[in-house]
Amino acid sequence: MMSEIILTVNQKFEDKFKNGYPLISAEALASTAGLEEEGSIIKLVDRRKQFIARGYYGKQNKGLGWLLTWKEQERIDQGFFERKLKNAINQRLQFFQSEDTTAFRLFNGEGDGIGGLTIDYFDGYYLINWYSEGIYQFKNEIVLSLRQLADVKGVYQKKRFAQSGKYIEEDDFVMGERPEFPLIVKENGVNFAVYLNEGAMVGVFLDQRDVRKLIRDKYAEGKTVLNTFSYTGAFSVFAAAGGAAKTTSVDLANRSEAKTNEQFSINGIDYERQDIIVMDVFNYFKYAVKKQLKFDMVILDPPSFARSKKHTFSAAKDYKDLLKQTIAITEENGVIVASTNASNFDMKKFKGFIDKAFKESGSSYKLMEQFSLPEDFRTISQFKQGDYLKVVFIRKTG
Ligand code: SAH
């Protein structure tokens, strides 16, 4: 175990940290002297040298590391990781017992007490995301804890700490057995093909589980559905499973077509009766207007930041315009599902974009449903940015 680096907090941040704020940032510290080796233990003290909390040094785009305990006596050792993991498992027993959902988030960073670390469960296999070199220093303790506390068929990992949080390409296998890919997992009875060893993304974003279910159970029947930024078509598959008249999936990545065909096929849905289009969404909007296409439901789930050949899209700047283009191709009484995972604005601001987009389009609307992260993506009230997901169902009423 490395020795502790004692760092003094600027007075103005003292209360925040004492109240449980977990993210260490340079501006909150009197000095960052001594921070050299990632994974070092940091002891934060106030200006009277009184203990506030203990954490680790690990650089992410968000900050310099995370606080782990506010108890002076508590050490960051094997027992610490076991306690955190055990608690996380106990919070999710109903997920472990579920037969129709076999993929969920087991450990959600600071929401479960360790910022910079997430663990997802895929039918007996575990995927660990390391968000800094610092947390990766605790790999042995964390993997050992997992093996002791859970039935582990195999473990994979994603190192997300190349520059500015980028994924490091390598063999992501850690231990156990390698399943045959695709690994077929279930979500509310629907199959998903998951690939744990093909780059940063595995085929499904688990945080949209409740949204997909509602689309299938309450909104899709008989409807024409346009799914933009569709990736592997997860929303389209749920819409089709809910009886949609037809789904149209649009994504500019070449891989999306085969991946979406696969998701339909493993659910017994004929993909040839669905449209899967490899195209820039912004070009598709122009095409749809020209062809006077309109949809009963449009799903918008763009990345918070993306660069294509012609466009740079940033959710904070461009979501309103994306909505205006969507409103133009949505039927009256149709529903827009507007989603964003941007953590740099909150629900209130998001609703502001929505209101502006409808006003500027001369349309009226009604808010129908609203979602933030599902319960397996635990968050803490002291760290609001951690609750990044915002999804709103909007009915176009005029
Ligand atoms: N909605 C998806 C996840 C979206 S991930 C789901 O629920 O599974 C973001 C996707 O947007 C990626 O697949 C990426 O290829 C796509 N994308 C980014 N910019 C795009 C653009 N301008 N036009 C079309 N697709 C885009």
UniProtKB/TrEMBL annotation:
Residues 7-70 form the RlmI-like PUA domain. SUPFAM superfamilies: PUA domain-like, S-adenosyl-L-methionine-dependent methyltransferases. Signal peptide: none annotated. Keywords: Methyltransferase, S-adenosyl-L-methionine, Transferase. It comes from the Bacteria. Gene3D superfamilies: PUA domain, RNA methyltransferase domain (HRMD) like, Vaccinia Virus protein VP39. GO terms for biological process: methylation. InterPro entries: PUA-like_sf, PUA_sf, RlmI-like_PUA, SAM-dep_methyl-trfase, SAM-dependent_MTases_sf. GO terms for molecular function: methyltransferase activity; RNA binding. This is Class I SAM-dependent rRNA methyltransferase. The lineage of its organism: Bacteria, Bacillati, Bacillota, Bacilli, Bacillales.
